[in-house]
Design brief:
The chain has 213 residues and is an alpha+beta fold. It has 5 helices and 13 strands.
Length: 213
């Protein structure tokens, strides 16, 4: 888990959020079960510089008047028209109490089945978990290079670090490598014909003879 640190300034209730934004400052609210709400501001340029790296699992250190607050981002609010950041909510967890959040699932490599014409369907991109703040990781990484066509990776197959409890069923699929749609339809048709006792080769031969006539 990596940290991102911001130098913050106290927010005066006399200055409206709109004016703060014009001054290049983003309003921030800091709160938690054992933390009284604290209003502050941070530099907008500094936030924009790292905002793409911030996720639920990112540890945020807010340095306010010489005191450091360790928190996690709960929400980043944006202007509905311009999409510019207008507010950020930071949550300070209780010491020794678990949090519920989503950890990104990062795939490493390209499945062997994809190199052979298969399609990768990444179903679960983030894993909902219960975890102590000290055990949070940036992502759960899984090497998928050995997966062939027809392979299914489930939650129970993930290399989940100790101290992290998934909040979904272990049988839930994370990803699968499947045949392209056209190939899959041909395979299903042949299976149906075989179930009916008809050899696909016989049907294909009959069609070919009709075309030659």
């Amino acid at each position: 888990m990596h940290d991102i640190k911001f130098a913050a300034e106290p927010r005066s209730g006399e200055i409206k959020a709109k004016n703060l934004l014009l001054q290049g400052r983003v309003p921030v609210i800091l709160y938690g079960p054992e933390q009284e709400s604290v209003s502050a501001t941070i530099d907008k340029v500094e936030l924009l510089r790292v905002v793409d790296k911030i996720a639920e699992t990112t540890s945020i250190i807010l340095d306010l008047e010489g005191k450091e607050y360790h928190a996690f981002v709960k929400a980043i609010q944006r202007n509905k028209v311009t999409d510019s950041i207008i507010h950020m909510d930071l949550f300070v967890p209780s010491q020794g109490h678990k949090m519920e959040l989503n950890i990104p699932i990062r795939l490493i490599g390209t499945p062997a089945g994809v190199d052979k014409g298969g399609i990768l369907d990444h179903i679960l991109n983030e894993l909902p978990v219960s975890v102590l703040p000290k055990d949070i990781v940036d992502s759960i990484d899984i090497d998928v290079s050995s997966l062939g066509i027809g392979s299914i990776l489930r939650v129970k197959d993930l290399p989940i670090p100790e101290g992290i409890k998934p909040l979904v069923d272990g049988e839930d699929p994370v990803l699968l490598v499947e045949l392209p749609r056209a190939a899959k339809e041909v395979e299903e048709t042949e299976e149906e014909l075989e179930d009916e006792g008809v050899e696909p080769e016989v049907i294909n031969k009959g069609k070919k003879e009709e075309e030659e006539e």
